[in-house]
């Protein structure tokens, strides 16, 4: 496995800087990019925010497939293992995500049983979790990853101790969600009360009477008009512009309201752990709803016996693909990474995707806006070799429980 770079800060993370920085440092756009980079250089996503059910159905993922995916919080990579693919290569530019992915893999491999995995990754305020990791998991981590988790954060606390509390309230996204709860409370709304709703009708009523009016508050409208206000969601300046383009007014508040409406109203809370994390800042208890797919008991054995099929790389997607033989990848998962990219980066990426794609390979990705980000931007030579499955893409976009993206897209190799 590729080691984590020793210095995880933005200043020395040349891979992240190369992907993110597109403007002069003294320009408004350049300053915004660098501020985002500083915020993104720590742990961002304790949980991934792409629906693995949608991914696996859209990819038609099965035994024998060779997969390349972006790591993020690591949840979906583990869910993919339930389908017993031949291999999964995980890439990420954030060393903190690399450490988290490796820890989750080792937890499945070395913790005593399924209950211990659920205790570590889905139970808040389990005071013995850090001790459990040190006993069963840490001895099997590579030296760099073990040093990371035994090390201390900027607060002086050992990183591994975050698992003794609510791990999902940490990281940039966890802190952002906490901030939104505080902001809602200042306006008289307790977002967690939506979890008391028992029917879709009650969920919609709560949204329309309690959540939707928040977007008319002057301070919230002012706040959401600042690009930096959404850095906590892991949304870089380029992606903010894509989101704003969806709105008739060119502002972000109506888009955020629509995405929250989908999250709150389009799926039963019992079936949507994304809604629980957003509104309750935790996973549901067994009597309240379902856990993430990778924590299901019926997936446990397949995942545990397959963890050795995963390799984790601190590298860009294009960088990793450039090391692979032609025709050696069956499924590509890009998350929303292309929203960050300029035309040159997109063409470099799709050149490598096209070269390494096997016959009938599939690529899936998400976009902040509704349209596919590669249409009209990659070269005709590249695009001619792929078929956009538009109707199927729209079908699965409607089913995505995370609800935060405007578009879900599937491309299939056609030549």
From TrEMBL:
Where would one find the signal peptide in this protein? none
> Is Transferase given among the entry's keywords?
yes
Protein's recorded name: S-adenosylmethionine--diacylglycerol 3-amino-3-carboxypropyl transferase
What is the source species?
Allorhizobium taibaishanense
Pfam families to which the protein is assigned, alphabetical = DUF3419
Q: Which domain of life is it from?
A: Bacteria
**What GO molecular function terms would the record report?**
transferase activity
Provide the alphabetized UniProt keywords: Transferase
């Amino acid at each position: 496995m590729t080691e984590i770079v020793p210095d995880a800060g933005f200043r020395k993370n040349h891979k992240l800087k190369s992907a993110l920085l597109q403007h002069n440092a003294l320009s408004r756009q350049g300053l915004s990019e660098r501020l985002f980079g500083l915020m993104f250089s720590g742990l961002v996503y304790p949980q991934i925010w792409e629906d693995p059910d949608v991914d696996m159905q859209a990819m038609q993922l099965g035994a024998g497939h060779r997969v390349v995916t972006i790591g993020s919080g690591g949840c979906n990579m583990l869910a993919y293992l339930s389908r017993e693919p031949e291999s999964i290569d995980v890439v990420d530019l954030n060393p903190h995500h690399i450490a988290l992915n490796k820890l989750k893999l080792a937890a499945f491999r070395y913790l005593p049983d399924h209950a211990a995995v659920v205790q570590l990754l889905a139970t808040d305020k389990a005071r013995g979790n850090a001790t459990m990791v040190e006993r069963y998991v840490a001895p099997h981590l590579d030296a760099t990853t073990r040093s990371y988790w035994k090390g201390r954060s900027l607060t002086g606390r050992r990183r591994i101790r975050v698992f003794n509390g609510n791990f999902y309230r940490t990281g940039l996204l966890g802190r952002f969600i906490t901030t939104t709860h505080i902001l809602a409370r200042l306006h008289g709304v307790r977002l967690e009360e939506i979890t008391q709703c028992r029917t879709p009708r009650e969920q919609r009523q709560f949204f329309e009477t309690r959540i939707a009016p928040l977007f008319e508050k002057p301070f919230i409208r002012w706040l959401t008009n600042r690009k930096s206000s959404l850095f906590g969601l892991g949304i870089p300046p380029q992606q903010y512009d894509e989101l704003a383009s969806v709105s008739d007014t060119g502002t972000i508040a109506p888009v955020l309201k629509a995405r929250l409406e989908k999250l709150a109203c389009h799926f039963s809370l019992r079936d949507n752990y994304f809604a629980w994390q957003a509104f309750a800042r935790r996973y549901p208890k067994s009597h309240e709803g379902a856990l993430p797919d990778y924590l299901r008991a019926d997936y446990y054995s397949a995942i545990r016996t397959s963890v050795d099929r995963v390799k984790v790389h601190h590298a860009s997607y294009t960088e990793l693909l450039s090391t692979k033989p032609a025709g050696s990848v069956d499924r590509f998962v890009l998350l929303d990474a292309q929203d960050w990219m300029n035309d040159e980066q997109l063409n470099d990426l799709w050149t490598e995707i096209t070269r390494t794609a096997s016959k009938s390979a599939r690529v899936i990705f998400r976009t902040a806006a509704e349209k596919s980000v590669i249409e009209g931007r990659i070269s005709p030579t590249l695009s001619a070799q792929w078929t956009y499955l538009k109707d199927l893409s729209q079908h699965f976009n409607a089913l995505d429980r995370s609800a935060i993206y405007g578009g879900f897209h599937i491309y299939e190799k056609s030549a």
